[in-house]
């Protein structure tokens, strides 16, 4: 896809994403948690089938332990949502950093180095066509404890595709992630934040929860490193999910901004972490 075409489509979708954001912020069932200690914690939930599901005892507690192997948790198919998850719930000042569209060997390694320097885990919503040529970077993400999510194969506007095409875009990407990262993804993010019923259904059928974001750094508009830093720091709040990009254009501002805002967020007492899905 041409870069300017990408930008135009993204601009056209900002309004739609903002509406989705408002709906999400109004408060719905949230079954995920983000616990800095790394163990799943029951999140407060309200209403809906997901809430009832989340209140059931965790399946892994009921599984018999065999030998000395750790208990195995096989994520089931999540319920089909009507809107994506926009925030995380967790103890204290928890935030999640997400990087989309990569991996890109020009920028992703720098981002990984900065995260490693500060011992911080993040989420990478990768595109299959990028991942297939950069499997080493997905392996590095796995080694460092980052979470890799599915961002489709070619970054299309899914709302313009047939169901079979949507499924192909998503399933192929899960396959390459499993190959390179070692696990199938349990999180999915629609390109441009353009969700519809088919994407929610297919994502859930492939074992993934839909995740959007709370704060858009708008780094893809290359507004300058300082502006990206300002947007992230001004948007910082407990439960916030930040959207940035490690591919899709010149992302050197994104790389530099992370080096600035990450230590400052940590100094302000934020836990930058990754979510744990609550499997029923
Ligand atoms: Zn994207």
From TrEMBL:
<dbReference type="GO" id="GO:0016810">
    <property type="term" value="F:hydrolase activity, acting on carbon-nitrogen (but not peptide) bonds"/>
</dbReference>
<keyword id="KW-0479">Metal-binding</keyword>
<feature type="signal peptide">
    <location>
        <begin position="1"/>
        <end position="25"/>
    </location>
</feature>
<dbReference type="GO" id="GO:0046872">
    <property type="term" value="F:metal ion binding"/>
</dbReference>
<protein>
    <submittedName>
        <fullName>Oligosaccharide deacetylase</fullName>
    </submittedName>
</protein>
<dbReference type="Pfam" id="PF01522">
    <property type="entry name" value="Polysacc_deac_1"/>
</dbReference>
<dbReference type="InterPro" id="IPR002509">
    <property type="entry name" value="NODB_dom"/>
</dbReference>
<dbReference type="InterPro" id="IPR050248">
    <property type="entry name" value="Polysacc_deacetylase_ArnD"/>
</dbReference>
<dbReference type="GO" id="GO:0005975">
    <property type="term" value="P:carbohydrate metabolic process"/>
</dbReference>
<keyword id="KW-0378">Hydrolase</keyword>
<dbReference type="GO" id="GO:0016020">
    <property type="term" value="C:membrane"/>
</dbReference>
<keyword id="KW-0732">Signal</keyword>
<dbReference type="InterPro" id="IPR006311">
    <property type="entry name" value="TAT_signal"/>
</dbReference>
<feature type="domain" description="NodB homology">
    <location>
        <begin position="93"/>
        <end position="273"/>
    </location>
</feature>
<dbReference type="InterPro" id="IPR011330">
    <property type="entry name" value="Glyco_hydro/deAcase_b/a-brl"/>
</dbReference>
